[in-house]
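pinned: reference chain
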Amino acid sequence: MQIMAIELNDQEVLTPPAHSATVMVLRDSPQGLEVLMVRRHGNSNVLGGVHVFPGGKLDALDCQTPASQLDQSAETLAASLGEAALDAATGAGLYVAALRETFEECGLLLHRELPLHMPAELRQHLKDGMGFAAAMAQLGLPMQTSCLKPWARWITPRVPSVTNRRFDVRFFVALAPAGQEVLHDDHEVTETVWLTPEAGLRQYWSGEIGLVPAQILNLSQLVQHATAADVMNAASARSPQLVEPESFVNEGERNICYPGDPRHAVTRPLWAGPTRLVFRNNRFEPEGGLAALLG
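pinned: its structure tokens
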């Protein structure tokens, strides 16, 4: 498999970051904790050829989901994200976007005790042009937002490193639904793969897959957990982390620093592990190399 070369962006983006949601879907396996990753289509203008967690931008329709379809109130959902300025409709919409994008990109509907024929029926409704919320309502399926736990919020800086767009991404974690088959869409996503966090980082280091900083550092955090339940419990026990990367050039190399780094405005680290990545060898590396990512 050919890994797409990463081209650094030097343009300042003046538009506000787009609200987005992404989900780290987790399961336990004989190899240990695994997370689902998808490979974006090589022709995509956003992270083409790179392995990411399923996700995408918030749609207006996500914010218009009727309260009767939600298993938690919009106010509760917005409050759970820990953002004082976030309105209820947008907060609830981000949860719906997370559910929708996970289904659209890898075929998994995050829903407990789902009849096995339902994903295929939902997929057909979407293929026929029905919106996600409308299709779920047609099938009598509530949005089980309680399947999701907020994990972090990553806001792209004004000079993004790997794209000329800005995103305000809410990361969620969720347990893989039992009995459902992963099925990528072959449009936005050309591959789905379950990886232990360690395997994902090792494959990145050996050049087998491409990753960008948010995926690298989230995998590095997941390495510290033994089971999917451990991750879900960790998410429940804390507020979502706010991550606002800051970048600078040092001796011709792009550096991206994170909370706790001496060059970052926030002095308190958010995680145990690297607080800076340097772009060299056509990839983002921490000082200390792979061993630093694996803890």
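why pinned: The chain has one domain: 18-294. Residues 253 and 280 are 7 Å apart (CA to CA).
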